């Protein structure tokens, strides 16, 4: 009886422990290939792009860390094409993955619909083979018709505390650069000219990351994503099924077979690489705090994050420079303020590549080290004063020697004159004595 009670209590404790662990780190994945292409990041990239060509290029850029898809299983990232299919005032923009010469799979589709009053509604629908049914991302509209968002998915609740939701209107969406570009009078419909085996020169494929590494980097942006975008269940474009799903959509039986066989599950087999992805985020975005809850716990316990330690080191270096140069404290402050402004500008630009951000930080570090150069330059007048005194002493030394030589010669002359007089006198005395 006691053994039964003990085993039941142990089972309850184990179950309770697992629920706690699940609450601390709930899985933000669907268990489908679409986990390796974050549609929140794709929507944000679309909002910041100027043209569809630029959007396609940034989407496939390795430095953007958005595309991590490998649907054909060749251990190389796939190229995603972008093509527009207009239907009156509705632009159906398809993101398609080319698996081979004869097979392709749609990844997601944008529906951009403009109304007679100039307002625009936009949605990003993930393909059901990669994301499941009704996986729709849209901006957080300021709804006045009583509609409510999908309550089934709100992201990681432990990380969504104190998020300031930014609501928008269809008129504000019409002002997005890419949306306004689509409705220009001279707009020419964009269709990607790339296909299997024929890719742009600026693009190269790379080995995809594990999902844990990809998520470790991407999840730091989730607070910003959840503040501007949301999940929705309904298609706002009424012709989605007839125009796109039945007429344009590309579907690959190979992808469905690989999903059923569980071949995509290997991407979740490296949970230890999540910290590596977080470290990559810290390197590419210095000065920005990570979204990890364990980071906040470390800070509360007296631990320091990497960004805080870097700030303290920079402040300590600036203080030491100011102590070395008390007379140049004003210039040091101005230079430090300039470097801090440069660091802020680097952290505010999201589209900058990591190489440029690293170069900018190196430039700022060089600018901080410039006060030492000014200190060296300030010490140069002392050297010049010393050289002038040495020169004056060298010039005065020969004069003193020459005057000393002249005085010695005069003294010899006088002494020689006196001696000759005495000799003459002695001769006259002798002559007088003889007489």
Beta strand count = 6
Order of helices and strands: HHHEEEEHEHHHHEHHHHHHHHH
Task: Identify low-pLDDT runs.
Answer: 14-26, 148-160, 293-390, 392-408, 410-435
Across the major sheet, the strand order is 1-2-3-4-5-6
Quick description:
This protein is of the alpha+beta class and 435 residues long. The chain is built from 17 helices and 6 strands.
Tell me about this structure:
With 435 residues, the chain is an alpha+beta fold. It is built from 17 helices and six strands. A six-stranded antiparallel sheet has the order 1-2-3-4-5-6. Helix 7 (211-218) runs parallel beside helix 11 (274-284), helix 13 (306-324) runs antiparallel to helix 14 (329-348) and helix 14 (329-348) runs antiparallel to helix 15. The chain is globular.
Task: Provide keyphrases for this structure.
435 residues, 6-stranded antiparallel β-sheet, disordered C terminus, alpha+beta
Outline the fold blueprint.
Blueprint: H1 2-24, H2 39-48, H3 52-59, E1 80-87, E2 90-98, E3 104-114, E4 120-126, H4 128-131, E5 136-139, H5 170-174, H6 177-182, H7 211-218, H8 222-228, E6 229-232, H9 240-245, H10 253-261, H11 274-284, H12 293-300, H13 306-324, H14 329-348, H15 354-368, H16 370-378, H17 380-434
Antiparallel strand pairs: 1-2, 2-3, 3-4, 4-5, 5-6
């Amino acid at each position: 009886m006691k053994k039964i009670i003990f085993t039941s209590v142990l089972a309850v404790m184990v179950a309770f422990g697992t629920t706690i662990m699940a609450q601390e780190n709930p899985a933000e994945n669907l268990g489908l290939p679409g986990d390796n292409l974050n549609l929140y990041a794709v929507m944000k990239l679309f909002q910041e792009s100027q043209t569809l060509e630029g959007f396609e290029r940034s989407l496939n850029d390795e430095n953007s860390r958005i595309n991590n898809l490998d649907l054909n299983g060749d251990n190389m990232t796939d190229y995603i094409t972008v093509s527009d299919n207009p239907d009156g005032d509705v632009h159906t923009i398809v993101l398609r993955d080319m698996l081979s010469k004869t097979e392709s799979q749609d990844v997601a589709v944008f529906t951009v619909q403009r109304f007679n009053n100039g307002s625009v509604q936009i949605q990003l629908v993930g393909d059901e083979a990669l994301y499941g049914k009704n996986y729709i991302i849209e901006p957080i509209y300021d709804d006045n018709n009583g509609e409510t968002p999908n309550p089934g998915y709100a992201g990681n609740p432990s990380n969504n505390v104190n998020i300031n939701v930014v609501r928008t209107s269809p008129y504000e969406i019409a002002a997005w650069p890419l949306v306004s570009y689509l409705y220009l009078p001279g707009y020419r419909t964009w269709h990607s000219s790339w296909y299997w085996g024929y890719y742009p020169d600026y693009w190269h494929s790379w080995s995809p990351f594990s999902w844990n590494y990809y998520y470790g980097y991407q999840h730091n942006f989730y607070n910003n994503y959840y503040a501007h975008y949301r999940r929705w269940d309904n298609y706002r474009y009424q012709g989605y099924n007839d125009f796109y799903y039945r007429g344009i959509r590309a579907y690959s039986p190979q992808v469905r077979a690989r999903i059923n066989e569980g071949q995509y599950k290997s991407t979740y087999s490296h949970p230890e690489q999540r910290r590596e992805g977080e470290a990559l985020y810290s390197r590419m975005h210095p000065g920005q705090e990570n979204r990890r809850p364990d980071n906040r716990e470390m800070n509360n316990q007296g631990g320091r994050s990497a960004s805080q330690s870097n700030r303290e080191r920079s402040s300590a270096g600036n203080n030491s420079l100011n102590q070395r140069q008390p007379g140049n404290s004003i210039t040091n402050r101005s230079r430090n303020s300039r470097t801090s402004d440069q660091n802020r500008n680097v952290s505010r630009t999201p589209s900058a590549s990591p190489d440029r951000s690293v170069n900018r930080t190196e430039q700022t570090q060089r600018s901080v080290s410039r006060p030492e150069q000014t200190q060296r330059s300030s010490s140069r007048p002392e050297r010049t004063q010393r050289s002038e005194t040495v020169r004056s002493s060298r010039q005065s030394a020969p004069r003193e020697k020459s005057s000393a030589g002249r005085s010695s010669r005069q003294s010899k002359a006088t002494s020689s004159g006196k001696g000759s007089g005495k000799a003459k006198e002695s001769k006259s005395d002798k002559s007088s004595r003889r007489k």
